[in-house]
Structure formats: C-alpha cells, structure tokens
Amino acid sequence: MPEVQAVKDHDTVKLISFLLEKQFSQQLADVWNIGLNLALRISDLLSIKFDDIQDGRLVIREYHIEVKTSYASIFME
Q1: I need a labelling partner for 5 at 20 to 30 A (CA). Which of 15, 32, 65, 72 fits?
Q2: Which pLDDT score is estimated for 65?
Q3: Which residue, among 45, 36, 28, 43, has the nearest Cα to 12 in the 3D structure?
Q4: For residue 36, what pLDDT is reported?
Q5: Is the dihedral of CA 35, 39, 44, 49 positive or negative?
Q6: pLDDT for the residue numbered 15
Q7: Are 47 and 34 a contacting pair, CB within 8 Å?
Q8: How many CB atoms lie within 10 A of CB 29?
Q9: CA-based diameter of the chain, in Å?
Q10: Are 48 and 58 in contact (CB under 8 A)?
Q11: How far apart are CA 7 and CA 56, in angstroms?
C-alpha cells in the first residue's frame, strides 16, 4: 500500500477544495471541507447519512465500545 502524507499547508488545503469544486462538484468540495473540520475517524465520516441532518444541522452520535476489563486477585500466603 502506498504511503500517504497529511496535508498540513493551509494554501494546499484551499487549493484542493477549489480544484474539487471546479473539476468535480461543489458537493465533493463540501465533503472534503466537512472531513477537515469535524475531526472524526474515517469510519465515522463514511457513516454520515442525509438523515443525520436535522433542522439544517448535522447531528452526530458517537458510540463508544465498552471494554470490559476483568481483574484477577492474587493472594500471597
């Protein structure tokens, strides 16, 4: 799998948004900008649906997996 580097330069971020809008669509540029601004994992971003928009706002529900930890007591005699 090829290595991917994060885009860190603000001008590059704006350029990518502009190019997505011009070459593809405003919708794709908006998806790019939402992904940048929400600070979610990619799996959370991919699970967003139109039904998650209520009264003009995106409603995101976070689900955390409860990790159960068991402890063993050791008694020294």
Answers
A1: 65
A2: 62
A3: 36
A4: 86
A5: negative
A6: 95
A7: no
A8: 18
A9: 75
A10: yes
A11: 29
Any idea which residue has 């967003």 for tokens?
48
List, as one string, the DSSP characters of the chain.
Answer: ---------HHHHHHHHHHHHHHT-HHHHHHHHHHHHH---HHHHHT--GGGEETTEE------PPPP---------
CB 21 within 8 Å of CB 28? yes
Give Cα 71 distance to the centre of its chain.
34
Where is 57: in which H helix or E strand? Answer: strand 57-58
Q: Which residues of the chain have pLDDT under 50?
A: 69-77
- Letter for the amino acid at 32? W
Chain centroid offset of residue 25 CA: 20
Give me the helix-helix angle, 26-38 and 10-23, nearest 10°.
150
- Which tokens is 67 given? 């990790």
CA 41/CA 45 separation, integer angstroms? 6
Query: How big is the chain by its Cα radius of gyration, in Å?
Result: 20
Q: How many CB atoms lie within 10 A of CB 34?
A: 13
